[in-house]
Amino acid sequence: AAAVRCQAQAEDMDGHYIRRCVELARKAEGHTSPNPMVGCVIVRDGRVVGEGFHPKAGQPHAEVFALRDAGDLAENATAYVSLEPCNHYGRTPPCTEALINAKVKEVVVGMTDPNPIVASKGIEKLRGAGIDVRVGVEEALCRKLNEAYIHRMLTGKAFATLRATLSMNGIVTNQIGKGADQSGGYYSRLVKEYDGVIISSNLARMSTLPVSHEAGANQPLYIIIAQGEGSLLQIPFLSEENASKAIVFADSPVTVEPAGVEVAVLREMDLESILQLLAQKGLCSVLVDFREAGEGFVSLLNNFHEEKLVQKVVVELLPVWLVSEGLSNLAFGGSQSFLLKNMEHRECSDNRNMEAHVLGVTAVAD
Ligand code: AOF
Ligand code: ZN
Questions:
Q1: pLDDT digit string (tens) for 85-102?
Q2: Phi-psi region of 143 (alpha: psi -120 to 50; beta: other; left: phi over 0)
Q3: Would you name the residues annotated as active-site residues?
Q4: Is 92 close to ligand 1, i.e. is its CB under 6 Å away?
């Protein structure tokens, strides 16, 4: 019984330290692409002696920072890593070597690395060196952390999230919640988690685009879809200095102002090709922003479901009831809106089908 209890305790500790690895990894959220976010903790005699995370592609991996932090105390210690240690010479030398040289006794791995040049070879290498390796601790959490990286590795496409703002009566609007684009606002919080944001040329033509104002926050690449444009597209939110923060996908040649913005002319403007091209450029995740979406932009989503091109949907529900002309489900400009207040939500489950979770939202009319 004592042995069983002891093992249960060890498993608890494994989970505890891998959760800490994930927390550390997240410190670099938005900065690691095309690399994954990875965290590492070194524990000796029940005490944390080193911690580290991968800050940015090209820089050392999480294990290296944690081993440096631990120094000589890494000998005979247990290393916890949210992702399998690499076993290849990439931009940096293999982490398996660093762990072996540091003489750690055990390695606990959250999940194996889907990168075909790693894929379990790291684990084999460590085991071959006589290190005890446990794999698959808090695996679901580790997968969630790097869902975009994993998706790109397995499909060669960027992970796509659709976002839209809806009125209470379900009309897609071009507004974002008041203050939503301010530092810490919902939109800027969302944007900094993505490597890129796909927007319509209509939105790009508007004066300012919300970006994250937080110091050091990731600024995404703006991917502008220009269909049936004239010969000139002006993008007021960009200057020549930050022209590299955008790329235009157009269906015919177009001159872009400011100069210096990359333009890619695609004969067929489909979401699949766009997500492949973005993955090749090293983007793991993109947010598809629906504001000011015209018909061409909306048609990008034809077949997205069959082709499994979209992985997630995010909506922001505004406390307004919109009365739009002709009852279209897209409302811009001149529509009338009634402001509501005291919004509340609760999750309601359909008893016949437990998979269906419905969010019930109420708000008070003035
Ligand atoms: C680890 N620890 O912290 C990370 C790993 O170009 P490189 O040398 O940075 O290698 C990138 C690959 O290494 C990346 O695609 C992924 O397979 C792995 N990332 N591995 O052991 C880390 N970031
Ligand atoms: Zn590595």
A1: 999 998 889 999 999 999
A2: alpha
A3: 63
A4: yes
